[in-house]
Amino acid sequence: MIKAVLFDIDNTLYSYDEAHRQAWGALTEYARERLDIPAERFEALHREAARTLTARCGGGCAAVHNRLIRYQILLEGAHLPIRHAPAMAELYWSTLLDAAAPFPGTAEGLTLLREAGCTVGIGTNMTADRQFEKLERLGLIELVDFMVTSEEVGAEKPDRRLFDCCAEKAGCESAECVFVGDDVKSDVLGALRAGMRPVRFCPTPGADDPLPDVPRISRLTELPALLPALGREGV
Questions:
Q1: 209 belongs to the catalytic site
Q2: Sign of dihedral through CA atoms 80, 82, 85, 86?
């Protein structure tokens, strides 16, 4: 029997790709206007700063997502004033949050699960403050019982420590949990290896299907109908 349904956030509850596109555009314009860095060079500096941050923190932890540190490193490497780093980070996140909108059927799907008696949780890579902000902005925070971030457990999906913490907070066995996410490696395979029942969220028709035995949905309202089968047998 399925007792808990757990969700990734980015590209599962809303389109991170679209929101990031808008945030990146604002950031690139800031770099051009305030720092005199053309778009192509800024992109190269950003890639290098991301690589440097990952190397310094060792990867596999929430610090790799810290935009403030990333922009600090970028500015230091370009010999530019680091005073711009907080403004750049705030611009990125404020633009992304303004652009974020839940996928159609998201709130309805979470509501249906709760009405069916399921615990609803979040298992996400990222820092807790930003993910709470997203859930608030998306209007979903009241539909979520708990959240586990990679910042909290010190490990990023697909590390099973994050999934195990989700099951612990849900108060049930891993096999009684469904994990819904868009990313094959982090969400689907990570959940599978942790003993959970994965469901891949895939709103785009014709997307690749490397794991045909794993159920796919395009709207969260499809989930309640899947739960009886997922509870009877493994995926």
A1: no
A2: negative
